[in-house]
Amino acid sequence: QMQLQESGPGLVKPPETLSLTCTVSGGSISNILYFWAWIRQPPGEGLEWIGSMYYSGSTFYNPSLKSRVSISGDTSKNQFSLKLTSVTAADTAIYFCARHGGHVAAQLDSWGQGTLVTVSS
Amino acid sequence: SYVLTQPPSVALAPGKTARITCGGNIGGRSVHWYQQKPGQAPALVIYYDGDRPSGIPERFSGSNSGDTATLTISRVEAGDEADYYCQLWDSSNELYVFGTGTKVTVL
After folding, report:
1. Is B2 near chain A, with CB under 8 Å?
2. pLDDT (tens digit, 9 = 90+) per residue, B55-107?
3. Cis check: omega of the bond before A15, within 30 degrees of 0
4. How far is A46 from chain B (nearest CA, A)?
5. Tally of CB atoms within 10 A around A14
6. What's the rounded mean pLDDT across residues A31-37?
7. How far is B106 from chain A (nearest CA, A)?
8. Are the Cβ atoms of B42 and A47 closer than 8 angstroms?
9. How far apart, in whole angstroms, are the C-alpha atoms of residue B30 and residue B73?
10. Residue B83 and residue B79: Cα distance in Å, rounded?
């Protein structure tokens, strides 16, 4: 059974860079059947897709965040990572990593438990 | 950009049927639905409009017609209390869009 686990600092100072890693077990991020995604949820608010990557290195980003976001994978560690630059308090959120199916429009069928990142000086 | 509008809340007694709508120029796009209980990650309950992942009860069903998708929960139970989100892929803008979310309360 696939499991995803987010890790990274819980506190980031503005305007530094937020960096998170998602470790995947029970499956490979090189599997051609899947995309890998980051989603966030400000406390008490709804879900926002940040971006997705494919094993080949192709990436799709939310246009509202595109200038600040980078998602990449490390197949040797079976991990994929998120970098969000120039953070502000508005980036405070629970960050989830997730898997989605065989093409970019497919459902998010496995999720990590999420990690809270607070942006504050 | 896309906005998927859901009712903020639905409250009903056990055993009743909950219908949660997701509207906003869906226009034939496939919709997925997620359940999120407090303190937990979202979990997929319906994909491609009406398919159920393994382990999801048949009480959960979905439909999509015109510009509205609907998640139906039959014979609601206390354990169904959660926030529910619809989601689709906006191919024009290459953007995953989530609905505004609906809180289901079982009275």
Report:
1. no
2. 999 999 999 998 999 999 999 999 999 999 999 999 888 899 999 999 999 99
3. yes
4. 6
5. 13
6. 94
7. 20
8. yes
9. 19
10. 12
Per the structure block, which two tokens stand in for A111? 């999720």
Q: What is the pLDDT of residues B1-40, one digit of tens each?
A: 678 999 999 999 999 999 999 998 888 899 999 999 999 9
Which of B47, B94, B101 is closest, CB to CB, to A46? B101
For chain B, what percentages of helix, strand and coil (3-state, to nearest 5) are there?
Answer: 5, 50, 45
Averaged confidence pLDDT in chain A: 95
- The amino acid present at A83, given as its one-letter code, is K
Indicate the residue type of B54.
Answer: S
Contact (CB, 8 A) for A65 and A11: no
The helix/strand/coil state of A57 is coil
Structure tokens given for B72: 């139906």
